[in-house]
Amino acid sequence: MILHKIRPMSTRESCYNARGGRVLMRYLRVAAITILCLFASIRVSVQGFPSEPDMTIDASTRDAVIDGVLKELTDYYVFPDTAARMTQSIWQRRQRREYDAITSGRTLAEVLTAHLRERSGDRHLAVRYSATVLPQFPFPSPPPPPEALEDARRQHYGFAKVDRLAGNIGYLDLRAFAPARLMGDTAAAAMTSLADSAAVILDLRQNGGGGPDGVALIASYLFDHPVRLDDIYDRPSNETRQYWTLESVPGKRLTRKDVYVLTSGRTFSAAEDFTYALKNLKRVTVVGEVTGGGAHLARRRRVNDHFVVIVPVGRPISPVTHTDWEGTGVQPDIKVSAAQALDTAHLKALEKIAPAASGPMKTEVFVEIERLRKELKINTPR
Fold first, then answer.
1. What is the per-residue pLDDT across 238-269, written as a single tens digit (0 to 9) for each?
2. Which residue of 203, 206, 300, 312 could cross-link 137, Cys pair, CB 3.0 to 4.6 Å?
C-alpha cells in the first residue's frame, strides 16, 4: 500500500488548481461527485430512474447483469473479503433459483441491491436500471454541464441560510459540501458574517453529502493552522492519502468560537465526514440524531447499456479512531431528536456565554434561555 500526504494548500490553490493531489482526492469520492453535490445530496447517485418505463429482460440478460455486477465488486469493492462474501451469497441464491422468475429490469436492480446491502451493510452500494441507454462513466469524470452549474449557483452552492439568533449566536444551514472552487466566495461571505457571533451553530440536518475539498474548505475556517482530518484509502490504486485543512482561506476564521453541529438521520456521506472528523478532533459539539452511516467512497461502474452498479471503492480512516462511521453513523455528543436539535444547541450555547454577558445583551441572553427551557420542557435551576 502506498501512503501519500497531501500538503496543506492555500485557498487559491485548493479552489482553482486543476492539477495535482487535490483533484485526485476529489475524484476518490464519487464519479461525477462535482455534479452530484450540487444537488445537496450524495444519495442522488444511488436513486435509480423512477420516472422511466420498466423493461422486460430474458434469462441470458439477467445472468449477464448478475455476472457483471459480481465482477465489478470483485475487482473494485473496498473490502475484498466482503466482496467475496457477497459473491458467494449471490451464487447461493442463484443455485436456489431465486432470480429465475425475475423478468423486470427494475425489479432485478432492486432485488440485487437489497441482497448485496443485506450481506455488506453498505448503503452506498447499489445496482440501478435505466430504460434509456446509459452513457460511459469516464474516470476522472468530465466537468458538470452548464445547467448544473447554474442550478448550483441559484441554490447558493448549498448555503441555504445564514442568520443571527438571539444572544448573538450565529447560524448556518448548509445543505451540501459543494466543490471548493465553486463555493469559495459564498463560503467566505458566510463565514465572515458569522465571525462576530458569540458561538456558531452549523446545521447539517439536511446535508446529504458532497466532495472532500468542500469539507476541507469549511473545516479550515475552524482552525488557525493546518490539521489532519482523515486519510482516504482507494482500492483501485491501493493508495492512502492524508487529507488536511487548508493553509489559508478568504474571509474571517471562526477559530475561537464554540461550534455546534446539528445532525439527523439524513446527514450523510461528506456531511458525516465533516462531523466525524471535527468531533474526533474535539473541535465541535454534535447535537441531534445518529447520522445515516455512509462512509464509503463510490464510483459508478457501467455493467451494460441499461444497468449500472455503484461500487464503494474507498474509505476514510480517522487518524484518531483508525476507523470510520460506515454502518454505524456518527454518534452525537448530545442525543436529541432532529426537531429539537436547534433549540438544544442554542440553549447550550447561551448557557455557556451567559456568565460573561452584560448590559442589554445579558437581558437578551437570559430571556432567551428561559424561553428555550420552556420550549424544551426543562426546569429552570433554583
1. 999 998 999 999 999 999 999 999 999 999 99
2. 300
